[in-house]
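Cross-check.
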Amino acid sequence: SARAADDESLEPATEALLRRLRAEARPAVDSDVATGIPAAPEFQGRTEVFSHILRAWQRAQRGAAQRCAILGPPGFGKTRLLHEIAHRLRMHQGRVVIVRARQSERDDSWAFLADLVVELARLPGAIGVNASTGKVLAELTPALADIYKSTPEAMPRQMAEQKRQRSLALVDLLGAVAEEQPVALLLDDLQWADAD
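Predicted model, tokenized:
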């Protein structure tokens, strides 16, 4: 089960936020006019998971990097939960990037990383990376060449050096977008990400 155990008690601001979230009347969901069937059922439950995530977000806002994992069998609702978490964080001006790995791209080297950096590059601060990072990112996904005003360079043939350069570029990009405000990275179906 997706259990979020945490021995810490909630800070008063977090408790107030949780009370408000529980009490707020969510707007009616859209429905098909012809059938009246809701487009998506109201999200309920998972209070413990939300509490854990909100405590982690609160710590991140104070500058401490956090990592949470939601585990469960297929059909458990992990994707829906991630989207609800994204929605709630955005309601409170959280910067959120959500990226989903696809089974069909499992054999495409660097596909997941390329999707992630494209989403990160849309955030304020992304152009604050150094020039060598811009070149590495433009090589990874040419769609970023215009953003970083860079011509993609040929990457080293050695996989270890490619990994090193791309890891450093990701760290630089994350640092640039999170410099003024933390960013919640919600990575869905990570088991399908390519091995690179």
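The first helix runs from residue 12 to 23. The beta strands are 95-100, 183-188. Passed to J.P. for a second look.
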